Amino acid sequence: MELLLLLDACRRADAARVTAVVPYFGYARQDRRNRAGESLGSRVVADAIAGAGADRLIVVDPHTKSLEAMCPIPVEVLTAVPELAAAGKRGLGEVVVVAPDLGAVKLAEHCAAPLRAPVAVVRKTRQTGSTVRAEELVGDVESKPVLIVDDMISTGGTIEAAAHVLLEHGALSGITVVAAHGLLVDPAADRLAALPLRSLFVTDSLAQRASAAFPLEVHSIAPLLADAIGRLHQNLSVDDLLARS
Length: 245
Known about the structure:
Keywords: Nucleotide biosynthesis
Distance between the termini: 29 Å
Largest sheet: 7 strands, mixed
Protein name: Ribose-phosphate pyrophosphokinase
Structural class: alpha/beta
Family: Belongs to the ribose-phosphate pyrophosphokinase family.
Helix content: 25-40%
Strand content: 15-25%
Number of strands: 10
Number of helices: 8
CATH architecture of the largest domain: 3-Layer(aba) Sandwich
């Protein structure tokens, strides 16, 4: 609501151009109806932001690939995960980048390319909102350090399931996980604490508290956002900052 009111105030003040910067687009996961009676929260929020006066929207690693298509104004979808992955790889040597589900494959490939690392993929089935079963691994992780990449960690179910499959296939203990958004809602803390994590890297798109249960490193996305905003206002390309779908 604060964002919508600010957009309206800028529009009524006759601003030449208004850009809404929303690092964590909180309703992006509600991009389809799984049963009758549900809403499309991502579409509702996108329409509200546009209707309040925004000319452009900047988001970081939204969960849905369709946000740009459903939004009535131009959307710049930035990604912070490759930089996190580069930080997470330090000291690991020949690492394997892992997509914890099929939806993260493109993101894993985007991160693996500059690292010159192979990619492995875990196939999962979501049984409930917080329970996930990993069923299959494509790729070789035996006796190798692994780096799991994803756009967000909510309950930790996907990471937990992927980690167990990787360890069963011989991956080295001391798993590194990177994700743009660390929601870390219950029971994420307990799940992550039970895993042999080397480190968990997230951004400050959401407020984070230091945890004694698992090693957490928080990286600022302020430089990424500042770079994108500066380029847009100078009419320069932001192509190398964008997420790859």
